[in-house]
Write a structure and sequence with these properties.
By secondary structure, the chain is mainly alpha-helical. Helices cover 71% and strands 2% of the residues. The protein has a two-stranded antiparallel sheet.
Length: 323
């Protein structure tokens, strides 16, 4: 998922911002393939999530201490925001997403998760009783058509229903992420670094508790993993998913939004889907079928159309999702 966004002037930094935004999308997009390499050797989905969130918390510990040392003192609302952010967008979304990856290909799981903007659109429509624009409804229809192609529903016997449900759970958590991230751009909201680092700590605690009470299995192995046709130690996968696909991805995303503004950054953030599919093909040999590629194109086009059609405002501030 991409980090909280704020609107800032782009000025002459657009070119550099685009490069950083693409780096962020690339980093986020490889989270699924890295996780798939661990899942293939016996790691449970929440063990992968714990490695990702725990590693992120450790890596951001020093920057967080620096922020606090420079005078940041969280208010009660900041602590509430961090707690909810850690439970829902970080722990919830990732447990659901990696559980989906355990049963579906990376590309299919990610594209199901990316129906979140459509869910958010429906929620906003219901809550505000305001009919979306025709282009927005057209985008929603394109997203549904793309999802049908991605799932290849004509081969219903081969669709893993549990995997699809996990993917939809990730989409719901991601929709919540959009809403929560919008608040991070407010003047009285917690800094993005505090929200991310604190959320990673809270999410790690939640994952450990889920494993301890037995709601989901928390298991890991020391077996070697396969990445891009080569064998690597298990810890390489953990380091890559925590350092590259979480910590670097968030920091690059924050820097990109600061240069581009949230609206332009959100479009560039859609590159995560394409990077994920290509990364899964390259790293773990999950080759997408032609209908799935076509469905992916439709979903990406649908999300772009929806975000273009909706007027800028508070609800348009998030810069894009994390896997």
């Amino acid at each position: 998922m991409s980090p909280p966004a704020v609107e800032t002037p782009r000025g002459g930094r657009t070119s550099g911002g685009l490069a950083i935004a693409l780096l962020s999308g690339f980093s986020f997009g490889l989270a699924g393939p890295f996780a798939a390499s661990l899942l293939a050797v016996g790691w449970s989905p929440i063990a992968v999530v714990l490695g990702r969130l725990g590693g992120t918390a450790l890596l951001l510990a020093v920057p967080l201490v620096v922020v606090v040392a420079r005078g940041f003192r969280p208010a009660a609302r900041d602590l509430r925001a961090v707690a909810v952010y850690g439970v829902v967008p970080l722990a919830g979304a990732q447990v659901c997403y990696f559980s989906a990856v355990d049963r579906l290909s990376v590309g299919v799981a990610l594209l199901i998760e990316y129906t979140a903007p459509v869910l958010l659109l429906a929620w906003t429509w219901t809550r505000n009783a305001e009919r979306p624009r025709p282009a927005t409804l057209g985008g929603a229809a394109l997203a549904i058509a793309g999802l049908v192609l991605v799932l290849e529903v004509w081969r219903a016997a081969e669709v893993d229903v549990v995997g699809v449900l996990w993917g939809l759970g990730a989409a719901v958590c991601l929709a919540a992420y959009f809403r929560l991230s919008a608040a991070a751009g407010e003047a009285d909201g917690p800094p993005a670094l505090v929200l991310t680092a604190g959320g990673a700590v809270v999410g790690s605690v939640v994952v450990v508790l889920v494993g301890l009470v037995g709601l989901l299995p928390l298991t890991a192995t020391t077996a070697s993993i396969d990445l891009a046709g080569s064998t690597a130690p298990w810890w390489v996968g953990v380091v890559l998913v925590a350092a590259f696909s979480t910590t670097l991805a968030y920091l690059a995303g924050i820097a990109a939004v600061a240069r581009l503004g949230s609206r332009l950054a959100s479009f560039v953030g859609l590159s995560e889907v394409l990077f994920a599919v290509l990364g899964a093909w390259w790293l773990v040999s999950q080759r997408p079928t032609a209908p799935q590629i076509a469905g992916g194109v439709l979903i990406v086009a649908a999300i772009a159309l929806i975000r273009w059609a909706e007027p800028p405002g508070v609800d348009d501030r998030p810069a894009g999702p994390e896997s």
